[in-house]
Amino acid sequence: MGEPSKIDHLIKTVKEVQTPKTEEEKFKKLLQSKEKVTKLHFFLQDALGGGSNDTVWEVARAQITPNSTTSFGQVRVLDDLITAQPDRNSEKLGRAQGMITSSGLDESALTMNLNFYFTSGEYKGSTLCVVGRNPISSKNRELPVVGGTGVFRMARGYTISNTYSYDAVENYGVLEYTVYVAYLDVEDQL
User: What are the record keywords, sorted (predicted)?
Assistant: First the structure.
């Protein structure tokens, strides 16, 4: 039993890097970071038309759903394109991915779990998580921002959404989102 081998040294180094203490220290430092506040504005391209290019798909329904005027009990998943402008061919910013459930018996309301995943620009690789009740026939619908990743680690805030346009023939909607978000300055964490 001589000196430790290179593999033993590598295993020890990996264990040191992965220790909870290291992550805990990073978290404590993160909490001491300065806070930034920003406003984002973008559009979701919501394709429900029944074709192969749809971005919203039904994955489950309750026994009551076919007879419900509000589609109560319907569960759908989505992977909508996020664009800078209402035109579906405008600059692509990312994807809105998540699950929506028709949860209002007497009013068309959705319970939503959305992740805005940014694939370009200064927020590339970061996400914002939005969860809450969305009364879809209302104007200026508010949903809370409950977290995020990457640049938006420890995010909080809210969104205001509106239906920008809806084509009943194509079953295609454009949703406008304005997001007010506070998050910890990643630059300050380094």
Answer: Apoplast, Secreted
User: Which tokens hold the place of 13?
Assistant: 């180094």
Strand partners for 76: 58, 100
Q: What is the DSSP string of 126-168?
A: -EEEEEEEE-TTSSSEEEEEEEEEGGGTT-EEEEEEEEEEEET
Q: How big is the CA angle at 93 (ends 88 and 98), to the nearest 5 degrees? A: 85
Q: Are strands 35-47 and 56-60 parallel, antiparallel or unpaired?
A: unpaired
51: number of CA atoms within 13 Å, CB side? 8
d(C-alpha 179, C-alpha 141), whole Å = 12
Task: Provide the 8-state DSSP code for 35.
Answer: E
Please write the tens of the pLDDT for every residue from 91-127.
999 999 999 999 999 999 999 999 999 999 999 999 9
